[in-house]
Write a structure and sequence with these properties.
- The chain is an alpha/beta fold.
- It has a single domain, classed as Vaccinia Virus protein VP39 (Rossmann fold).
- The protein has nine helices and eight strands.
- It has an eight-stranded mixed β-sheet with strand order 1-7-8-6-5-2-3-4, sandwiched between helices.
- α5 links the parallel β5 and β6.
- α1 packs parallel to α8.
- The radius of gyration is 19 Å and the shape is globular.
- Pfam families: Methyltransf_11.
Length: about 250
């Protein structure tokens, strides 16, 4: 059995660029939403003419979704992800544009008939509506309220649930931007972490769960967590996901 120090060293060394979670196989589990986002994305991309994927990460989801449209563009704001996304989307003739957080999208009004995003940092609904062509569709799987909150509270203590990831808030914002909702689905899903290395990699890869997380800053809590997992089994949490599909009216 790996020691605590071995697991900490391993977790600290794993690269976290991109949005590929294959490293977690056999180390952590997360149930997938029943709607199958990658399958849906593939169906929508196959029908699109000009598509934009926002906050693409390393482009992994789009790259494996199937037949790309004639024009495929993706945005990403975290610099280490940009070359990963470029490499993944180049075989699809996709173009990756680095954007600044919270800046307007660098595209003309009505450019895209399909805009997508999987786990966007923040859905900028007015900008989404602006770049959608009349009759165009926005399809997105997003992180819901209190997702993996058990892990946040383990390291931070009692913590208010961050606002802004509520599906009903998203619906209201979409309507305010002039879009109409075609579909909204919400699910809570079980997660497990089988060792402390998996927890470390997850918190490095998804930094908003424990803002400012470093191994050195939380070493004592990590050791306690290692002892807990060793004695009682995997650390269990709950992820929250919602699927939202919105359209820009054609009229």
């Amino acid at each position: 059995m790996a020691t605590f120090d071995d697991l900490v060293a391993e977790g600290a060394a794993v690269p976290v660029e991109g949005w590929d979670f294959s490293w977690f196989a056999g180390r952590a589990t997360e149930a997938r939403p029943s709607w199958g986002y990658a399958r849906l994305l593939g169906e929508y991309l196959a029908r699109a003419h000009r598509a934009l994927d926002l906050d693409t990460g390393g482009g992994e989801v789009v790259a494996t979704a199937g037949t790309p449209p004639p024009v495929l563009v993706a945005t990403e704001s975290w610099a280490p992800n940009v070359p990963v996304a470029q490499a993944n989307l180049a075989p699809l003739s996709g173009v990756v544009v680095r954007t600044a957080p919270d800046a307007p999208l660098p595209f003309a009004d009505g450019t895209f008939d399909l805009v997508t995003s999987r786990h966007p940092v923040r859905a900028d609904w007015p900008e989404i509506a602006r770049v959608l062509a009349p009759g165009g569709t926005y399809l997105s799987q997003q992180v819901g309220r209190a997702s993996v909150h058990e892990l946040s509270e383990y390291f931070l203590g009692p913590t208010p649930v961050a606002p802004g990831r509520d599906p009903e808030v998203a619906v209201a914002a979409a309507y305010a931007a002039g879009l109409r909702i075609r579909r909204l689905l919400v699910e809570s899903l079980p997660m497990t972490f089988d060792d402390v290395a998996a927890v470390i990699v997850f918190l490095r890869k998804v930094p908003w769960i424990v803002p400012g997380f470093t191994v050195d800053a939380y070493r004592d809590r990590l050791r306690e967590l290692h002892d807990r997992i060793t004695a009682d089994g995997p650390f269990r949490a709950t992820s929250a996901r919602f699927l939202i599909e919105a359209v820009r009216p054609a009229g």
